Amino acid sequence: MKLDLIKAAFDKWIPRLGLAWWTIEICHYDDPYEIIQRFRTIETGEMVPATVTAQWMYADARININLPAFEFIDDDNIERVIVHELCHLLINEMRETDIHHEERVVTWLTKAFFWVADAVKEDFVKADSMRADKKYDR
Ligand SMILES: [Zn+2]
Known about the structure:
Blueprint: H1 2-16, E1 23-29, H2 32-39, E2 50-55, E3 60-66, H3 67-70, H4 75-90, H5 100-137
Parallel strand pairs: 1-3
Antiparallel strand pairs: 2-3
The structure holds zinc ion.
């Protein structure tokens, strides 16, 4: 179920990104009227899967989740969407007149975190295969 994956991603990434000390309210929406009110972008009319409002000076945030939108997101990408939203908390104090610079930085931070996670995974695989090779050298 998508909601389980969403919750698992928050549980995994909130502490990893150093956000355990924040107060983060996570709200899920599935009512069509509320979804249109909360998740339609003003500029393009596009629907987004999640929104964030944060007060960085108080380490306080609210993340709104558009549940029906997640039905169209691959399981593998759910975690990326959640990390993207959490990255907004990391750099929320950069927000000034509009969100465009914050969006670009958050998108690249999300990619960077996953590149690091992939690299760590690769190193473990290499280390395991080196250990396995040593066993058979005897
Ligand atoms: Zn964003």
